[in-house]
Amino acid sequence: MTLIRGVIFDLDGVIVSTDDCHYRAWKRMADEEHIAFDRADNERLRGVSRMESLAIILERATVPYTDAQKAALAARKNEYYVELIHSLTPADILPGALETLAALKTKGVKIAIGSSSRNTPLILKQIGLDKAFDAVADGNGITHSKPDPEVFLLAARLLGLAPADCLVVEDADAGVQAALAGGMKALGVGSAANNPTATYRAQSLAEADLTAMLR
After folding, report:
1. Residue-wise pLDDT tens digits, 21-62
2. b/e string for 164-196 if b means 16 or more Cβ within 10 A?
3. What is the DSSP letter of 3?
4. What is the pLDDT of residues 173-193, one digit of tens each?
5. 12 catalytic, yes or no?
6. 148 is catalytic
7. Beta pairing class for 6-9 and 185-188
């Protein structure tokens, strides 16, 4: 059995919760466009890119949008989102995250972020973890979003590890799918805790025994 030498964490929903920030930003944009959008709709946006999320929202639009208009809508949503994430603090780090990172470092396991978000650097800075990881792969360095494995493969490469040596921690089914497609093991937490394809499952990092998974 391959020994896990690196753990790659999704950011949103694993290390910090920005779900409400995303929802409020999309909701504000949708309301301005008179498009129905609620928290149930927001669940469909987990783990997908900004433009893919917009496409899902526009399924309920009553008028067509050009590519230029879609780009403008996505940019407007991001402006609203950036305003909201500036209010994040270390208090927003999810339970079990800091303890997990510390335990992995003690064992000499490399840690990375693998997130499709282009706002990853800002979020990490806001919560005080911008120096905590050995590598950060995010939406600024990839072409394809999850379920494509590109971001996790990039993270593994930045860590100097083979994909088979890495475990991915994800809260979205698309992220679990991406990890497995990249040849990595996957720990599903949060919304992905019931994903039957995940290698391991736990409700949160606080309940996950990563040390047992590293064997």
Report:
1. 999 999 999 999 999 999 999 988 876 778 989 999 999 999
2. ebbbbbbbbbbbbbbbbbbebbbbbbbbbbebe
3. P
4. 999 999 999 999 999 999 899
5. yes
6. no
7. unpaired
The two three-digit tokens of residue 85, written as one number? 């994430």
pTM for this predicted structure: 0.87
DSSP track, 160-172: T--GGGEEEEESS
In angstroms, the Cα distances linking 70 to 34, 65, 84 are 15, 6, 21
Residue 125 reports pLDDT greater than 90: yes
Average pLDDT over residues 125-149: 95
Q: What's the sign of the alpha-carbon dihedral 47, 52, 54, 57? A: negative
d(CA 104, CA 168): 13
**What integer pLDDT is reported at residue 215 of this predicted model?**
66
Secondary structure of the chain: what % helix, strand, coil (to 5)?
A: 50, 10, 40
pLDDT of residue 211: 73
The whole-angstrom separation of Cα 190 and Cα 91 is 19
CA distances from 65 to 5, 82, 123, 174 (A): 46, 24, 30, 26
